[in-house]
Fold this sequence. Notes:
homodimer, mainly alpha, Arc Repressor Mutant, subunit A, Tetracycline Repressor, domain 2, 0% strand, elongated
Amino acid sequence: MARVEAEPGGPRRSGRRPAGSGTREAILDAARAAFTQRGYDGASIRQIAREASVDPALVHHYFGTKQGVFTEAMHFPFDPSVLVPEVLAGDRSQIGERLARLFLTIWEDEQARGPIVALIRSAVTNEQAATMLREFVSEALVARVARELDAPDAALRPPLVAAQLVGLALLRYVIKLEPLASADPETLVAAVAPTVQRYLTGDLGPG
Amino acid sequence: MARVEAEPGGPRRSGRRPAGSGTREAILDAARAAFTQRGYDGASIRQIAREASVDPALVHHYFGTKQGVFTEAMHFPFDPSVLVPEVLAGDRSQIGERLARLFLTIWEDEQARGPIVALIRSAVTNEQAATMLREFVSEALVARVARELDAPDAALRPPLVAAQLVGLALLRYVIKLEPLASADPETLVAAVAPTVQRYLTGDLGPG
């Protein structure tokens, strides 16, 4: 780790943040950026420390392992225990539109979509990140929503919604497939809302 | 590269395939397996050569760079110029069901879904692979389908279908989210067919 200091372009020791106020947050900000850009396997404690201008030992001190930083950094900027009841409350026939608009609104903000992009980038090649994504969808969304829905096949419904919304996030924000990537958010809300609505409350067909 | 031979568990030189009959295919098989399991960034020429029991120099000889192997290995096991007209032919009101069943049938075969899994795993962190996925969706599917569809917003329709189907493939085969992962294929065909149908021929709503 001492080699970092000798590298051209690396932070000077004097420029490093000390432990203490704001340092933990600075590390988490750097970690979120690193995981968002490079995924779990591509990011390293050393890079995160460099970008946060701290000694790598401090990252280990605060978070233990890379997995520890990842878990903390991936805290979503919204709390499903607050948002899910909000989406479920109100007219049940508009739930698809409310849910589609909620996600597209959050994702339009580049900072706010960091965790989902990071989680997608990481989960496709890293089993721990895949477990986090599974648990997030299963526990935070599926369990809560399924409990509220009075519909057959309640367990299959939220994962179908997740497949639609994660697929949209993947192609729009990660792969940047046109014309999806530059489409107006409200155009996409209108397009996917009936899908989300049917997956949650409608007929899933025979089979 | 010579170090490979000295590694424990590495192939013995005498066990290596010579150039010639079947070798090119053996390299492509090993490459498909490597890209499927580890994505573009995680796979290496050295590993691919080891798994194909050939000298790494032979991989370079046949395919040049890692990008060259990737492009060849990612040839899809189906030809869109044959399949798209088949799906578009026949009753237009059943096109969603035919397309959903076509993809789910291909993907149920672990070998056949290799390229889409490899492409998803690679495209999320690698710009060249993302370009390949964009071009595949845009040229092979979007252009062909949009040309045939007599509907407003024809350019947006196939990418919406792609978002749904790629999202389903991602959560079912890569992330393995239950109960999607173990759901009967026909249950999923029934669930997503109306979505695909609406994206291709139906009302995309205001916006």
